[in-house]
């Protein structure tokens, strides 16, 4: 009996500190990774402005949240940010289409090398970052309101009588629900609608798609619209869960890229799963298992160090190691890249 | 001569701008900018060798810069004997363990090339090795970091002359580039960019968080200098005399002796800072010139011919017996070494090592903008790019402030928009750099000074 | 492998997705011969060259050169073993001059080592002079003298082809694979080119294997001639036998409706 409880406690501990956060973080990465992979598949370049575009969309949500709050409009127990999403997405899409028209289009039409487009995206990254900092500044901002928890540790303990608590933050549930809705809609769109299949055809083989009468302008526009959804929603979910800080968004680009490559770049399903692969790896490797082992092992074996494989300061190293391993052994990614 | 008109004109404008800063702001600021321009030029040359000669995208400039800076600390700082006796053995032990781990993995890779369980062996030895290293290193690290943490808390350096560290910085960077190149050079260009970006982040986080190595984010200040200190100059009679002589006319206008003395004091203080910076300028300029001569010589030697051939057509170069992968690795190492050298120069110039300040925008992407703006594959262009972009980067804030004030003169001082804009003036530098990059890529894709294909008539 | 063979290709295949560009192809090339390869467009001739010369990795099969297994060996190693090639689409170094294109070829130049190039300019200069002399001979041989300081990118298609042939003359090759070296070269030049190839074959003992469409040229130069179709060898014989063979004529005429067959 005692032993069973200990085991249960250990499981709850892992759920609470690794599995649930990893699913949440993984969903946020997955949205970004699908964004990267779509741009790569259809427009054929690595977009180094990814993190900042996500930040850009989130910035609108933050500003609108502040505005709605001051106007007394809200969603009750849900965060106001959800209410602002449609407007933020719209603003993001307009910005992306604007950038495409005045920057990327020229290189697409003159069939520049992907490397050149990647370099152009660095220019877009600078500009986007500048606009964000000029409008909202570089500071750390919280814009989460409404109910904070769905399940509090104390409630859980009371309910179950366990000594280990389980917390479910509302941002975690929201992240999961919104991701499921968005991603399943996207996959339905790509597989079942005519526009979606023409996008996939275009990504597979541009020349063939053009021959069969697919309008490239439309494909490009749809891609940016989808990208606008993914970037904004991914960014807002991350911001609600943690906080909104432009520099952090820029840095998130790295695990997002890693997720896209691990999943096989150009493959949205792969990118989706890649997000979770990276998130779980990052969290499992940097989690300190001391307490976990204290629950599980007999007293004389209990560890006195943290039992942490890698300090959280080195989370980039996790993304990188996975990236290197995948690139060395399966260069096309775990899930075969280059098709959507 | 006409051929060089562009280059000469561009450099003259740049020099003129710096002189303007000297006249309107101060000579000390102008020289600071010039020094940083020169450092940037060295970094740009490094990146340009990789991109221009071999088409390799290295988005890890930040990592190599930081390693160069680390070298300055490890070479020039006086050793901390207490720290060495507290944990030196453990650190040396772990170093030996790391080396043997690498050797063992290599041995497995070589000896058991086709063994079924090869990967398991390797995984097992790495995990076991890492655990062992942690056990050996951990007590040592704790002990070292406990030694007077406010002042030291690290092993210190070797106490050698700081100029020597420039070479070591280049070697450090070359070593990292060798490892990175071995892993990542086979990748497609955009993957290489991402991989190098990640590696740079890892390098910087190691430097930031391993306090025993170089104090991490607690910074190392008061580094040695290869040039005199202001304080020493201010008390040297020869220097005071020199300043007095130079400003004879100005001083003679004053009648009271004490006024004269105050004035002279102030002049000596100003002049000492200018003098120190001038010495640095001399050093940096020599580095730039030496590198320029070497790279130009190399480019037009049979070695450069081989490299240019590889750049033109990798497949044909391979068919003509050139080992493209090996040459790319060499280029990658050379370019990175130059960036490492620049990193060491920069820390020497600042006199302090601040790991927290290494950010990819400033140390990777701005450098890339310099390369693209200057003109890829062209050393004169690369140097100019370093100058122009650095100048903009520094002066963008003041320029933006001026423009904001100009356009909002009709607004009230407390107007929210005006206040907000003035507060955000520093961020306009990102905007200018970004827009500059986009404009150049669109309308002058070969950069300010396009590469001249130099036909050597024989 | 017998003494007289220099190259032995055995059951080599290469798939691009579902398409078998080269399909279980086997052939042998005799030492000292000038072997011709003909076949309709898309029959896998160039792909076969790419597989032999290390520009593509084969999906299966093996290649033996001079009694050594060279399957999937990188091309720069094959160069040092004496296996050289030219490309169907000219692969000149466009930002190098004609002279530089030739001078870059020989390996083991001291000046190709960065350190030597920087610290021992005398030695490098001496070697460069010798190289230049050799390159100028080749240039003269190819009738490109007036162009020696021109950037290779500015040459005409035919001149680029000549230049590529010239590159193989800068070293002592054993086997040279020529991919449509005559395409785009005018008649008189083609004749010179033929003479050059024959001379290299006789005087320096080069073995040649050439993909060519001009059947007159082939008849004059090559023995034997190998006919490829759909990724494998259809027929092998003298040029007269080839011209008479029914299977060969069928494969050319049956496969493509347009009579692009170059059997004139
Ligand atoms: N890199 C490639 N990718 C896909 N298909 C290729 C590639 N190279 C050649 N092919 C295909 O292989 C077949 C053989 O081509 P090739 O060897 O060039 O023929 P040939 O030289 O006899 O004209 C053609 O159908 C061609 O389209
Ligand atoms: Mg062909």
In short:
The complex is a heterotrimer of chains A (340), B (458) and C (264). Chain B is mostly helical and 458 residues long. Chain B has helices spanning 5-24, 27-54, 61-76, 81-111, 118-146, 162-184, 189-209, 211-214, 230-235, 237-246, 248-252, 257-299, 302-312, 314-319, 324-350, 360-374, 379-407, 416-423, 428-443.
Summed up, the helix count of chain C is: 10
Summed over residues and divided by their number, the pLDDT of chain A gives a mean of 89
What is the helix fraction of residues of chain A, given as a range?
over 70%
The string of secondary-structure elements of chain C, in order, is EEEHEEHEHHHHEHEHEEHH
The strand line-up of the biggest sheet of chain C is 6-7-8-3-9-10
The secondary-structure element order of chain A is HHHHEHEHHHHHHHH
Account of the protein in words:
The complex is a heterotrimer of chains A (340), B (458) and C (264). Chain A has 340 residues and is mostly helical. Chain A has helices at residues 2-43, 50-71, 80-109, 114-136, 153-160, 170-192, 194-204, 206-211, 216-241, 246-262, 268-286, 290-296, 315-329; strands spanning 149-151, 168-169. Chain A has a two-stranded antiparallel sheet. In chain A, helix 3 (80-109) packs antiparallel against helix 4. The termini of chain A are far apart. The mean pLDDT of chain A is 89. Chain B has 458 residues and is mostly helical. Helix content of chain B is 76%, strand content 0%. Chain B contains 19 helices and no strands. In chain B, helix 2 crosses helix 16, helix 3 (61-76) runs antiparallel to helix 6 (162-184) and helix 3 runs parallel beside helix 7. Chain B is globular, with a radius of gyration of 25 Å. In chain C, the strands form 2 sheets. Chain C has a 6-stranded mixed beta sheet, with helices on both faces. Chain C has 10 helices and 10 strands. Chain C starts with a strand and ends in a 9-residue tail after the last helix. The structure holds adenosine-5'-diphosphate (ADP) and magnesium ion. Magnesium ion is lined by residues 45-46, 88 of chain C.
List keywords for this structure.
heterotrimer; A: 340 residues; mainly alpha; ABC transporter involved in vitamin B12 uptake, BtuC; C: 264 residues; alpha/beta; 6-stranded mixed beta sheet; 4-stranded antiparallel beta sheet; binds adenosine-5'-diphosphate; binds magnesium ion
